[in-house]
């Protein structure tokens, strides 16, 4: 199902909680969320606020409500692939605050009128304070503003934190998105490594996610077996997207690029989903948690 909400609602925690609770109890399928913005162009600062609000609310939802359904925020793109939309969802719910004429046709051209439902009016219209801008080197950067963007990670059991990293990277990229996926050399000391998805599985998950978020963008994927990966192999990279937890990695990459005589990368640093603070990252969402659950389940079965 596609859920369409307004930009105001994407910033309003109480409204998001009410809406997601209602929609997830109504639908039995995975949920895709489109935020219709009246502010153009949408900036990277606004996008990160929206993503962090939505995914943090989704992260804290009761598992009995989610019932294993995945939640994915997709980019608002007038050139979205209509065939991908038809493959991913067959129904739509939309907020009473959404102007239907602002929803690009590719998202809903295949949906019959009886498969569209308006949500009950939100009971909250007050905005919560926006997230602090985490070291965004250009908070006014907008959709497709940077030629070559790089992002890296293990991307094991693709979770909401990974989704934010990849979505922001796809949002910024005007030409080439380079994704580094961690290989075996850097995974030897990972906890519960026996429950980690294979490299091919993780690469496929990244490709499928980018295809949902922005179908027109086909990522170039590289295996990472050192700290820098493709950022010190490809000179023509303009920006790097990292999580707040990995910000020192961005500094290290730029020090190595300086040694090579290459330009430094603009580093966009994104907050950590579920984290209680910016230093210990208590309660943060991580792939290790997914693997630990599998380990404990397997141990109890034995």
UniProtKB/TrEMBL annotation:
Residues 151-292 form the Cytidyltransferase-like domain. It holds the Pfam family CTP_transf_like. GO terms for biological process: coenzyme A biosynthetic process. One of its GO terms (molecular function) is dephospho-CoA kinase activity. SUPFAM superfamilies: Nucleotidylyl transferase (SSF52374). CDD domains: PPAT_CoAS. NCBIfam families: PRK00777.1 (NF001985). This is Cytidyltransferase-like domain-containing protein.
